[in-house]
Structure formats: C-alpha cells, structure tokens
Specification:
about 100 residues, alpha+beta, 3 helices, about 20% helix, about 25% strand, binds FE2/S2 (inorganic) cluster
Amino acid sequence: MAKITFITSDSQTITLEGFSGSVMALAVENGIKGIDGDCGGVCSCATCHVHVAPEDMEKTGNASQIESDMLELDDNVDKYSRLSCQLQISESLDGVILRVAK
Ligand code: FES
C-alpha cells in the first residue's frame, strides 16, 4: 500500500491509498482533476502529466526514454515531470507528492 498525494492546479490537496496498478488509474478512478489518462496508459497522450516533489524524485526515479520523448511535447515539462501512467504503485512510492501539471 502507498499513500499518494495529489495537488491539483486549483490547489486542492488529495491523498489516496493505492495498492496496485498505475498512479494514473488511481487518479482517474478517484476523479483527480487534470489527470485524464486519454490513451489508457500506453504513454502516448501526456494527459497524465505530473510534477514530482523534488524531494520525492528518488521514490519515482526518472522517466524512461519513451516517456521523456512524450513529455517533451508538453510545454509545461520540467526536470520533475513524469507521466503518472508510467508510475506503478508500490510501497516505494509511499508518501510521494505529485503536483498535477497544467
Ligand atoms: Fe496517456 Fe499516460 S495516460 S501518456
């Protein structure tokens, strides 16, 4: 189990508990504003873009090459960007804070 906190673009802070699957799926199931998951999690839409809190980057690790290539198409990309469909829920993500990208 991992507790994952989302901060939406309208500054709502929502903490969810996840057990398996992707962070994107958890967010969509719980109606997190700004995470749409349009491609279903196959790394081809970037509607699941989040900025990881800098201190939590070691929990998420860095984006893969294919993920980075997709993120580069988004104007709001920064060095803390990840596609949440590529983050699998596990104990190692517990406590992570994710700001939903604009
Ligand atoms: Fe499409 Fe993540 S859901 S890239």
